[in-house]
Amino acid sequence: MRIARLTARLAAGVALGAVAATGSFAQDKPYEGVEVNVMTFTGPQIAEPLQRRAPDFEEKTGAKVNVITVPFSDLYQKLLTDWASGTNSIDAAVFAPQWMVDYVTAGLVEDISGKVADDSDLRADDIGQFFREFSQKFGGNTYTLTLDGDFQMVYYRTDVLDELGMEPPNSPMMKSLLADLGSGSMMTRRIAVSPSTSAIIARTRAASV
User: Does residue 50 register a pLDDT over 70?
Assistant: First the structure.
């Protein structure tokens, strides 16, 4: 489980900014000579922070992190092909968490519940509850760590509402309003109520057996 352990620590360092910098972990470089391949999509949103922090991680742990980027449209299939075929050239990935169920049910990613619970360097409670309980878990077990989470916001003009004699909308009312504005389109409803997230996962060692 050496690689799995390392990728779990990588997730903590990048997602939470909690790479340990004290004690024997920083001084002994226990992962000297280890290389980890992390795949994500092209663009500055996720890849740039990974690339920027990778040298810091290597300095503190000895492990070299190779950040591999592909177009977002190719990411799902490239990961699935690599892991399902047993090639296993990718150790960890950053991707949309709604894909997690496909990888979990295929037995391609590792249940890291125990590692998250036991690792004092991980600040799991620093992740918002929704992302911690929904985006990271499947079947009650933790398979990913949230790297980024966003909620969409809607602003309204109080002067316009006053002029129309309307009260500021509550949440159910706002959902209905947005659905009407979008002629009932699913996209409008998603803008109103759904978060978008990215997660970093460690592949299971069982995939290489």
Answer: yes
Structural domain count, the chain: 2
Contacts with 33 (C-beta within 8 Å, 6 or more apart), sequence order:
62
Same domain, 81 and 100: yes
Which DSSP string do the residues of 9-60 spell out, in sequence order? HHHHHHHHS----SHHHHHH-TTTT-EEEEEEESSTTTHHHHHHHHHHHHHH
**Measured between alpha carbons, how far is residue 194 from residues 52, 74, 81, 153 in Å?**
30, 24, 29, 10
Reported as a pLDDT band with limits 50, 70 and 90, residue 1 is: very low
Overall pTM > 0.70: no
**Domain co-membership, 99 together with 170:** no
Residue 65: per-residue pLDDT:
96
In single-letter form, the type of residue at position 170 comes to N
